[in-house]
Give the backbone structure.
Amino acid sequence: MKRTDLYLKPEDEMEFMPIIPLNEEDSESPDESSIPTDLPLLPLRNTVLFPGVVLPITVGRDRSIKAVNDAYKTDKLVGVVAQKDSTIEDPSINDLENTGTAAKIIKLIKMPDGGTTIIIQGKKRFSINTITAEDPYFRASIQLLEEEKINIEDDQHFAATVSSIKDLAGQIILLSPNMPSEASVILKNIENPSFLIHFVSSNVNSDLKEKQELLEINDIKIRAEKLMHILNRELQFAELKNQLTTKTKTELDKQQKEYFLQQQLKSIKEELGGDTNERQIREMIKKSESKKWPDAAKEMFLKGIEKLERMHVSTPDYSVVYNHLELMLELPWDEGTTDSYDLPKAKKILDRDHYGMNKIKERLLEYLAVLKLKGDMKSPILCFVGPPGIGKTSLGRSIASALNRKYVRLSLGGLRDESEIRGHRKTYIGAMPGRILQSIRKIKSSNPVIILDEIDKVGNDFRGDPSSALLEVLDPEQNHTFYDNYLELEYDLSKVLFIATANDIQHIQPALRDRLEIIDLNGYAVEEKIQIAKRHLLPKQKEMHGLKNVNFKISDAVLEKIIEEYTRESGVRELDRQLASIMRSQAREYALKNKLKPTLTAKDVEKILGKPRYSNELYKIANMPGVAVGLAWTYVGGDILFIETTQSDGKGELRLTGNLGNVMKESASTAFTYLQANAKKYGIDPEVFQKKNIHVHVPEGATPKDGPSAGITMMTAIASALTGRKVKPYLAMTGEITLRGQVLPVGGIKEKILAAKRAGMKEVILCWQNEKDVQEINSDFIKGIRFHYVKTMQQVLDLSLT
């Protein structure tokens, strides 16, 4: 609905509340004879005049002024029609609507600026028949349109429609803040239904086209229903507008309240000694003054401080910027521990913590010597590769202690998200720096020893490939400019000594493997395990079980029995568990009797741990022809395996069982083909290969087996079965074969030799090229084993078959 006060505007901006006539009946029921059939036309731009409604009009166009003046001098009647397009300044007859309202000029006022204002009242609707004149203004022959007389008391439906119109209009007035309350009073006092419809139609906030459609409807009932639809729409719009206004006002009130409270809080904090946030910022600036950081970091920090000072603490970005600046302050940019260059002391620490491992100790002492002479050098990227339980991870702590550096361990096993290394973008919710920077931040040193544990077990998925992210970290040529996504700055990692550990180097990405300095850690010999148990494991377990001050001894012979008969491993974890079982039993004994036997015997061990789990007797039994003993390498160390061969009637087929891999099957086929080609040379009847089937089996079928190192063992087993000659007892062998009968070298020699030693083997056949690997093993650990170095299969069979 429009405003109810009367005000005057130019014709092209008219928006008003029509005046109520004093006599509603007279306004809507003029004498038809008093309205001539030929009238001057007054075009209106922005409104439609309805019968009975009074409008103030400011007339500005020359044509319209002349038509109004001429009409005012005669019968004061004009035909008011609406323009189809309100933007046209000088309309033609085609630009005018065909239906209009005959109106009477009640008052004509000459304005000081030369304009003319008239007050007109609508009398009767008409339609234009013909235009009778166009100059000096439009005149037209008209036909008056009759209004249907309806008795509201007889038509209940129409009465309900009129009542609804009055109610809807009243609600719209209440919801419209620009409408005075008097408008609803005026509305209630209108009793004539026809005039009510015209009055509301004139005031409804609708476009010109809809109002013209209302005027053109002859049936008053249809006009009332259409008006009711328009009012319903306007009411919904007014309600929505009111809701939005109320919501906005509420939000503004809330913001004003929060601002007021914040100002009060600020005043209180100032009285108590300053704003907390300002104090925090001042403290951060003070801390930054003592930092030795690169120019880029300093510039970013100052920009962050400026941004923080402009932000309110309640904004979401405040905590993001604050946390980022806090990380920058807490990172040790150029702060680290001072390395200890005392080589004898470093060697003593390494020997104290770990027995053996001479190769690694020598490498670290070399690094320390260069560091002492040069004063600064890029840290090497070491990778310890070996079976589980041999002390790879704990060695890292000893190295940190020997160098007087801080120690950090990062477990990479199962890591799948690349952002764990490089960090997240700081704009994300819950964003964090990568684990490398987190660790450096925590220990506050830029030159720690960082152990990257289980680097061979890094995974990858849709979130990225962490091993690819490690390429930058573990490259001495790149890691001085390591980029973390959260920090958004380059950070120098070149002073960090990275030590990776792995069980199987084959599972490390080739590009990453190329950046690592691989140091192989082999399993321990029995003699080494005895020393480790005496020096480290027993004292630790005694202390853990409350027996530190209780005197009892375990002899070397008993320790050897525990190692050989209750464990089968390269490391010492299982040995540690067995010693823990013994200590628990001793602790219970001491708690009950308050005393212990001074020396633990082999019988006591069997009583506590039960019957021996492993035995070497199996390898000492004289086997039937066709059985040979091979040596195998596994990720947990070396092991012994039997190769069993038998022949049966058939068509010369070779059958292989025992869960063998492709490479091992090919070795068996190569051995079979070589013997078939050289049957006479080795005293084998060639007819055997046509009439007998050869079956090769490797026991422990549930365990997958693969690799070429069982080649000479398979050859020996097949030759033994076909010739009927037994393989020598206490003999083990390993090596790859070719179709020419050559023996090739294989890997994992130390683990295999130690496995042969544990199993009680007395002779071992190896390729001549593996002699250098045997020489690296401490001679004390392989006492009692005789080594045969061979080049051809002829030598193997001569040595192995009785």
Remarks:
- DSSP finds 28 helices and 24 strands in the chain.
- The first strand starts at residue 38 and ends at 44.
- Residues 2-17, 25-30 have pLDDT under 50 and may be disordered.
- The longest helix spans residues 220-272.
